[in-house]
Design goal:
The complex is a heterodimer of chains A (about 110) and B (about 110). Chain A is mainly beta and about 110 residues long. Chain A is about 0% helix and about 55% strand. Chain A is globular, with a radius of gyration of 13 Å. Classes of the chains: A mainly beta (about 110), B mainly beta (about 110).
Chain lengths: ~110, ~110
């Protein structure tokens, strides 16, 4: 019940294309869903986050879509660029804070 | 405003030894969380400290221990090192336990 399942494990997209990464969760106590971007040898960096009272949040080329009834959320990267090549993690945390649960990660490669 | 800083960046230990990793939280942040990230995996929650008290612990044995100091910096100690402890150890700070986490670059531990 504490897991966050992420797919796909790896993704190859052409420059200018749309990258889509999906996550699913079980614990209905989760109420904050961030996405992190991690480059090799670096720590994860917060990219964008959403709370379940909205169905979509957009920041630049990055959009989170949230489906509360299905307990699923996804990250869309529009106009994907080679500089977006990194590992992306979805995560979830409850309103008591503490333990941020991460998905398994998606290694994105954007080809020129 | 300085971000989260961790030291050392890399270290090599042998089985049975002890290690101490250090973290300086971002200015104004009173909460520090520690995560272990094995190669190719998502970060796993070790524990969180809020105002010098432990505020949640993940599924790690007692040989993983921590401290938070009055200036909100933190230490992670691991005793009796095992080969499986080889990982990237990430520290993250936040304004409080339920706010966004900001990660440092990590300390890469190799146990031989």
């Amino acid at each position: 019940q504490q897991q966050v399942k992420q797919s796909p494990q790896s993704l190859i997209v052409q420059k200018g294309g749309i990258s889509i990464i999906n996550c699913a969760y079980e614990n209905t106590a989760f109420d904050y869903f961030p996405w992190y971007q991690q480059f090799p040898g670096k720590g994860p960096a917060l990219l964008i986050a959403i709370r379940p009272d909205v169905s979509e949040k957009k920041e630049g080329r990055f959009t989170i879509s949230f489906n509360k009834s299905a307990k699923q959320f996804s990250l869309h990267i529009m106009d994907s660029q080679p500089g977006d090549s990194a590992t992306y993690f979805c995560a979830a945390i409850g309103n008591q804070g503490g333990k941020l649960i991460f998905g398994q990660g998606t290694e994105l490669s954007v080809k020129p | 405003e300085t971000g989260v800083t961790q030291s050392p960046t890399h270290l090599i230990k042998t089985r049975g030894q002890q290690v101490t990793l250090r973290c300086s939280s971002q200015s104004g942040h009173n909460t520090v969380s520690w995560y272990q990230q094995a190669l190719g995996q998502g970060p796993q929650f070790i524990f969180q400290y809020y105002r010098e008290e432990e505020n949640g612990r993940g599924n790690f044995p007692p040989r993983f221990s921590g401290l938070q100091f009055p200036n909100y910096s933190s230490e992670l100690n691991v005793n009796a090192l095992e080969l499986d402890d080889s990982a990237l150890y990430l520290c993250a700070s936040s304004l409080d336990p339920i706010r966004e986490l900001f990660f440092g670059e990590g300390s890469r531990l190799t146990v031989l």
